[in-house]
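Human: If only I could read backbone structure tokens as easily as an amino acid sequence. Underneath my words sits a plain record pairing an amino acid chain with its backbone structure tokens. Take your time, and here it is.
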Amino acid sequence: MKRPVVWVTASLTIAIVVTTTFLIMTTSRGETTSFGSSAGRLEVQTVASGLSYPWALAFLPNSKLLVTERPGRMRIVSSQGQLSPAVKGVPEVMATGQGGLLDVITDKAFAQNNTIYFCYSERAGSSGGRTAVARAKLVDGATPRLDEMKVIFRQDGPLSSGNHYGCRIVQAADNNLFVTLGEHYSGRNEAQNLANHLGKLIRITTDGAAPPDNPFVGRDGAKPEIWSYGHRNQQGLAINPATNDLWETEHGPRGGDEVNIIGKGKNYGWPVIGYGIDYSGAKLHETASKAGMEQPVKYWVPSIAPSGMAFYTGDLFPRWRGSLFTGALAGQMLVRLQLNGNAVTSEERILQNLSERIRDVRQGPDGALWLVTDSSAGRVLKITPAK
């Protein structure tokens, strides 16, 4: 099914609200910066600093956070912003290129079972890496640790030399897990091959099995875990609470970053269709659209490199309720997409003067927006209305 497309280019400003931001004071741990936005002035507080390439955050009881660092560490952040020692029991990761310890989420029943799920790049022999998904029980304390750690899924297919692992996780209402898997950059044509997991979005149980109602279960030559295919490097994943639809963002090459609404068994076209060009400047795709391949609801030319994403449902920013937020790596900003049903009607670019690569964005239990910044001096940031 074709969906409306919103196309953003450097010269096209219609339907885009580009918010001018202004810096009030310099930032260090615990201090605050202030920026303008369509919701009024925002306070951006540094909750924690001193993290090495933080990739994802998850909320724990007692106002604590769990944060992954790409080199292979997991930390608990206290309500006062103090970092725990590295959580023990995290498996070895292949922390080269874009690989490492990546996404983490808590189980829907975490308060009862202390279970988390995380994904990472795992070395496979001496030739490369692949995406793996693990389950464990998080034990908090003076020296936090993972108990009962078990790898529940390993990506099958040609290995990565360090690129395009994907690796976002969402738990659905039925408790099954959706996980994004990249095509390892050099294996882009494998995104159309149902016989492996490259360039796929999978759906698995909390034990790693393929649910029996997955679209390719029982089909010869197809991996039963596959939910959708034809993806490049999927960096954002979230369920729209208003519709229960699964939304995803993925990187294009030079242009053609996408926002997609994911349908069961659908083909999203990479690398056959798309809106970018190769890094060399050469034509990459056969065409921009093709029968049997899904269109994005939005794409960016030039690229902003969208990352973690979240739908906003809180009360702190009533004007933003129902909006979709995504971080941007190359774009170094937070992006708000205004929605009308499944259509993107406008875009607002926020925190541009922060000059930080935003790797993840989540809505906290307090209704604030929480971010992590992607650098060797990474931070956890909290966004609230200015007082």
